[in-house]
Specification:
6-stranded parallel β-sheet, alpha/beta, Rossmann fold, 7-stranded parallel β-sheet, binds uridine-5'-diphosphate
Amino acid sequence: MNSLDDAPNPHFVLIPFMAQGHTIPMIDMAHLLAKHGAMVSFITTPVNAARIQSTIDRARELNIPIRFVPLRLPCAEVGLPDGCENVDEILEKDQVMKMTDAYSMLHKPLVLYLQEQSVPPSCIVSDLCQPWTGDVARELGIPRLMFNGFCAFASLCRYLIHQDKIFENVADGDELVILPGFPHHLEVSKARSPGNFNSPGFEKFSAKILDEERRADSVVTNSFYELEPLYVDSYQKRIGKRVWTIGPMFLFNSDTSTIADRGAKASVNQKYCMEWLDSMKRGSVLYVSFGSMARTVVSQLEEIAMGLEDSKRPFLWVIKSDNKPSETDKLFLPEGFEERTRGRGLIIQGWAPQALILSHPSVGGFVTHCGWNSTIEGVSAGLPMITWPHCAEQFLNEELIVNVLKVGLAVGVQSITNRTMKPDEVSIVKRDQIERAVVELMGKETGPEERRARAKELKEKARKAIDEGSSYNNVMQLIEYISSRGTRTDVQ
Ligand code: UDP
């Protein structure tokens, strides 16, 4: 691997959207590209850089050619509180627009920064939600590749939904509409589909996303071809540009310390957590977590607690609740729950080293909100899943997991839940639904064994894709493709 002083070419500039589910895969991408000979600049902001300080320190320690570049975000200028630099800090809808405005104001400082570098940038790879970066790329005379954090299945759905405006005359959010142009019969509803920022006030931003998506050189995704070949091919054909499937990106990284701290420092002592898992029977533990953004209301926490207790199965439950002002406050769980499940239950309140936990041999199942990163991490660990989508494209991912890949079992969620909803607006999944799903997933009847076998097959395919197969080849081709286009100084 090249060091920073012995700078390799080409030079990739990565610009994530500042939400954990978007930043984490781009941190993985930075390591992946650097490992295969590229130089990487990773654009961030001071608050976001502080959150990933251990990743930054570790990259420096291992002499990995990634430059983390914190640019000051002009929060005050757009009316955001100082330090409000990540979407998970936001609880009011109108602040999202302010944040996207603040990010687009990084245009000038970014251009200036990149123009000063001794190794000129060769391309920008930026999140779909950072469309202003298309103008930066054009100003610098380099291609912009769009990072799409969805899988190809959901990306194709999203593309068809928005390009063909299929919900334009649909008043009832729950009405099922056949998705025209999809490779097979699929019915989707407006309420359970990704929104593309289409609420009032977001019109310009949403149009810019679609426009820059059309103008992007190509698309990069954290999926692998063998997982969803039909949808990768169809998505590629429909958008008329190359889709680089280079995932599961985190599997390229064998440094456990980087994997453990992806996104944030864990709220649990890692050694304690791993020893607890070591003490459990192989494949016996159910891991329960709803990603980085979802906050679980008290009444739902109680139902989950009782469902897990009634299932009598071991569990590791990560709780991000809205019932406490800080991470250190006591959670409201049913009276005596922790005593009654002592020995077979571990609760992590806050941030868990998820990718490490999922790959532990004692973990045998995953209750997931179907965020794409969690899904691909579950697939990479060979785990069958209980699907519990909350919002965004998660209901589409549920469809992929349960009905296409057939490695999941739906807990039975009908309506969306998001963090700006009031507790009485959230529709609650009941304890007996949860208990039934857990017993079925972790049980031993014919169905679950087949599901488990399919999950194991996918794990092997994922490993193969990154070791010697499609994702490995795509990364190498991507680096070569960017090299062959030349850097800015070459094209002038
Ligand atoms: N994650 C983690 N620890 C946590 C919660 C989440 O490491 O306590 C990671 C998880 O492994 C995944 C990402 O955060 O990589 C969440 O992304 P996902 O797309 O699953 O969901 P989102 O948070 O965007 O809803």
